[in-house]
Amino acid sequence: MSQKTDMDSSPVVEDQPGASDLDLTWDSDQDYDECVYCHEGNDLCRRSDGGTARSARDEKDVKTEYIQLCGSDNQTPEEIDRLRQRVWKFRHLLIGKGNALPPATRGVVCDIDVGGASPITMKCRKLPIQLREKLTDLIKGLLSVKMINYSRSPWASPIVVIIKKNGVDIRLFIDYRLFSSLPQLMIYSMPLINDLLEDLESTFLYCSLDMESGFWVVKMTDRARLISSFITPFGLFEWNRMSFGLKNTPQIYQRMLDNALYGFTRIPKSEDHGKRGIGKSGQTISDLTSYIGAILISANNWDQPCDRVEGLLEACDKWNLLISVVKSFWGMPKVEYLGHKVFHNGLETNPKGVPTLTDPAFSGSLRAMPSMLGRLNYYSRFIEDYAIYASVLYE
């Protein structure tokens, strides 16, 4: 992983207008490729949040009552309040609903090395007229929070617009598939979900935390910005933060998170932005598992989550990692984690994921089969005689 460098250099395009002054006009004479857009629930990029701009962060938006904390029947109000105060001590790390793009994390930067490969420039794709205004607003939002800049890059990847389930709002994704064959695969072991879920039933209390904004907390080098460029009907743009869909981004983020939570490395003293001991070696937090932005702390008594939560939040403070308060649960006897319900009696399927198995939108084509098998494999432990049924589908 590259050490973090100063990425606040001047944008590629000089004298860029403010987002409110932009004139994103539709070029009707441009040569477009065929239109590509999907409805949410499509297999493309289901996991990520895509391009969704947010307003400026305000700590006043987070209140103590937003901390979702329960405890088991054995906890007294005083014990529950003790954990709440441990969390509230680090309230500057909590992001409430509607809050913004967090500041960049420390100690890591995304770089993309394509060797001597020639730039790939693809045509802009057509966009239905009913989506043009929505895309304009989304791009303006990304520009306003400095997620993207105008670009003069020789690289250009096309966009895919995802229509959300409400049928009104959209998400923006970049189709990097043609480019993804160029960089070398980063060798870093990603955790296996089945391994992370093992032995969790041996504990009684859980804290399930969601890291805010995912990949967007990681800055990019200048050459990575150029390679991340995407073409729209309104012009060419490049990402300032690590984009979803780029090759090696899961490995980069997971390695950063492992370094922060398990104390493998320390942040250089040159990056000490405060007096919190950033340069000190980290300490491993016990009984903790993480998969990209999802973190789970398990415990057998009330003192353990109090101590472990404080250790986790201290690590997040050092690495400048923020937590979504509306998606995090503290000291619970039962939580959601990696698509499962986790509690002392074992694992359960998440009700939100069951309809994809009981009523799948499966076309029956060979091309759709891998996706269908992937969904079945995820919950295979809950399907009796799954190996028999799956063998027929594989054949």
Automatic annotation (TrEMBL):
GO MF annotation, one: RNA-directed DNA polymerase activity
Domain of life: Eukaryota
Cited InterPro entries: DNA/RNA_pol_sf, Rev_trsase/Diguanyl_cyclase, RT_dom, Viral_Replic_Matur_Polypro
Keywords: Nucleotidyltransferase, RNA-directed DNA polymerase, Transferase
Residue ranges occupied by any Reverse transcriptase domain in the UniProt entry: 144-342
Pfam families xref list: RVT_1
Keyword Iron-sulfur carried by entry: no
Chain spans, region Disordered: 1-25
PANTHER family: POL PROTEIN, RIBONUCLEASE H
Protein name as catalogued: Reverse transcriptase
Native species: Phytophthora megakarya
